Amino acid sequence: MTSVDTVTDRAEAVPEGPLLVADGVSRVFDTAAGPVVALAEASLEVHAGELVVIKGRSGSGKTTLLNVLSGLDRPTSGTVVVNGVEVATADEAALVRLRQRDVGFVFQSFGLIPVLSAAENVELPLRLLGTEPMERDARVAELLDRVGLAAHARQRPTELSGGQQQRVGIARALAADPPLLFADEPTGQLDSVTGRQIMDLLVDLVHGGGVAAVVTTHDPLLMARADRVLELHDGRLGHAARRRGRHSAEG
What we know:
disordered C terminus; alpha/beta; single chain; about 35% helix
């Protein structure tokens, strides 16, 4: 069961081992013109309470990397272990459980369902998990309050600004209280002021709530607040900068 107190509990007891381990991960797509290497032998570890930023030009493989690390896609070779689950060899049922419980994903395009209200969008993952109605309502209210949208619970996405929609997306990604959060260019469609607010929210979730986050971005301000910044170039992952992180992870 999901508890509104679990974020605080996690912050008080951060696990020592990595939540995410990728080792020699490649992703090759077959096309009419031949195989395309989107990701080449990428390796990294991510721990609880750590914000890792992936930077790189458009087409460098950032979205492919997030999809593979989060279990939305399987690697062509190499291993990805997410909270103890090996993505490459897990059956589909195990991957569904992984996506529902262990990872949250924030999309650049928000990815909200237009006919549902903000509260209903956040509630959806909990419905899929079969969470009891009273617990669902409490969790949705707690998350909307945390992202500053308690007064907008009944509004649909088209009635919200871009920044508000992204906040709903973050609340939805956190609904099942996953230990890992992935965000693909979360400030890419936002103005600088709104982007800074989303940035503050992500940093607070990671450093204050014990969530581990892997974020792709072009935003230098978000990079400056990361524990580590890694650069993806032509599908290859390497260190761009080392920040204030507590853990030594290879990239």
